[in-house]
Amino acid sequence: MIPRMSNHPQSNTDLLARSLSAVWHPCSQMKHYENFPLLPIARGSGVWLYDYDKKRYLDAVSSWWVNLFGHCDPRISAAISDQLGKLEHVLLAGFTHEPVVQLSERLREIAPQGLGHCFYASDGASATEIALKMSAHYWRNSGKPEKTQFISLENSYHGETLGALSVTDVALFRTAYGSLIRQQATVPSPDWRKAAAGESAEEYALRCAVALEQHLQRHHAQLAAFIIEPLVQGAAGMAMYHPVYLHRARQLCSEYDVHLIADEIAVGMGRTGTMLACEQAQISPDFLLLSKGITGGYLPLSVVMTHDEIYQAFYGNEMASGFLHSHSYTGNPLACRAALATLDIFAQDNVLAANRDKAAYMNQAALPLREHHSVQNWRNTGMIWAFEVETSQRNFAQRCFALALDNELLLRPIGNTIYFMPPYIISELEMDLLVNHTVHIINQLS
Q: b or e along 5-40 (b: 16 or more beta carbons within 10 Å of the residue's beta carbon)?
C-alpha cells in the first residue's frame, strides 16, 4: 500500500502551530511570527494560491521568482510523473542518463554562441560558487594562479553561501557574516535611478562603464572574473539598467583578460522579454548561470554553462587539474525532465511573443498606478515591473505585505519598492485585479 501525505490540517491555525514548532523558516526572524503569522498554503492553481480557509492570493512574485507557468501545470506534472516510473536519480560522477543529456543539448541551442558545456547543481547560490571556483581554477591551470579576486556591482546579490556572499553587496549579510568571507570589491551600479538630472539611462550606463574600466586597468592582473546580474538587479529593488552596460562590460573583460559571469538565475528563462537577458546586449559571457525558473518552479536545479576554452583547461590526466566540485543531486533526472517540459512549453505556446503582448497590456492597465501621486520610478523590463512608494509608514514592507494578503495578493516589497513578477500565464482580468488592488493598498499606505 502506497502511503499518502496526511490530510490532517483542517485550518490555517492547525498547520501554523505545527510549522512554528518544527520548521525554521528562511530569511526570517522567527519571533516576528508571534505577531505576524505565517500563511499556510493548501494548494495552488494557475496564478492563485489557496489557504486552508479557502482564501485565495494572486502570486504576483512567482513564489520567489521561480514559477513561470502557474502552479500545478499539467504538462510539467506529467513529465515528472513519467520520469518517476523510469529513473528517479543516479549519481552523475561516472554515470549519465537521457534527461541530463537532452537538457544540456537543448540549453546549448538557446544559449549565446559558444556556451556548450553544462555543469549542474541544485540552486542559484551553488551555481555562483561553481562559477567562481571554475574561473579561479581555470586561471590556475592556465599558469596565472594570482588571478583569484572578483568584482561585482554595488548592491549586487548572488546568493547566501559563503562564496556567493563574497560577491553579494547587501549590508545585512556583510554585518552578520563579514568575518567569515573574503569580501570582494564592487563597482558602481548602472541602475538608472542613480542617473543625474537630465542624464539618460544609456548615458549613465556608459559613465558607470568608465568606472569599471578604471578598476580593470588597476586590478586586472589579480582579477579572475566580473560577476553581474544582467539588466535587472533583483535584491537591489529591481534596479534596471541599459543593455549598453553589458555590451561594454563584455568588451572590457575581453580586453583585460577577465572572465565575465552572467548571473541569469533570476532574469533568465524569458523574464526580461528575451529567453536570456544577455541577448539584449548581443553578448556571450564566459559563464552563464541559470536556476529558479528553469524547472518552472517545480524542483531545485541550477546550471553553469561555459565555453570550450575553459572546459579544455581542465581536460587532462591529473585529477588535480580537473574541476573539483560535486553535488549528490547533480543533474537529477526528475529536475531535468521538469526543465525539458518547461522548454517545451516555451516552444509550444510561443511564450516570448505572448509575454510581449501581456507586458503591453499590463503597462496600459497600470496607468492609474503609474500616475499615482505616491508612486516614483515606475519601470518595466519584460515581465518585471517595479516602483517606489513615497510613504512615512514605518515597516512599510511588512505593512504592505499584510494589506496585500487582505486584498487577495501575494506581494513581497523590498524596502519601499513594490514589484510584480507574475507567472507568465496571468490573464488580462488578473492583471487588472493586480493593478486595482495595489492602488487600493497604496492609498492606505501613503
A: eeeebeebeebbeeeeeeeeeeeeeeeeeeeeebbb
The DSSP H or E segment spanning 78 is helix 74-84
3-class DSSP state of 265: coil
Pairing of strands 384-389, 375-381: antiparallel
Q: How do residues 368-388 score in pLDDT, each as one tens digit?
A: 999 999 999 999 999 999 999
Angle between helices 396-406 and 428-445 (to 10 degrees): 130
Determine phi and psi for 375, rounding to 5 degrees.
Answer: -95, 130
Angle at 304 between CA 63 and CA 413, to 5 degrees: 25
Q: Is 74 exposed, middle or buried (0-12, 13-18, 19+ CB in 10 A)?
A: exposed
H or E stretch at 65: helix 62-65
Cell of 331: 543533474
Alpha-carbon torsion angle 179, 261, 161, 22, nearest 10: 150
Note the pLDDT tens digit of each residue in 240-281: 999 999 999 999 999 999 999 999 999 999 999 999 999 999
| Pairwise CA distance, residues 327 & 42, whole Å | 31
pTM: 0.96
The C-alpha atoms of residue 114 and residue 25 are separated, in whole angstroms, by 40
Measured in whole angstroms, how far is the alpha carbon of residue 70 from the centre of its chain? 17
3-class state of residue 303 by DSSP: strand
CA 403 to chain centre: 25
Residue 199's φ and ψ, nearest 5 degrees, are -90, 130
Q: How far apart are CA 47 and CA 58, in angstroms?
A: 6
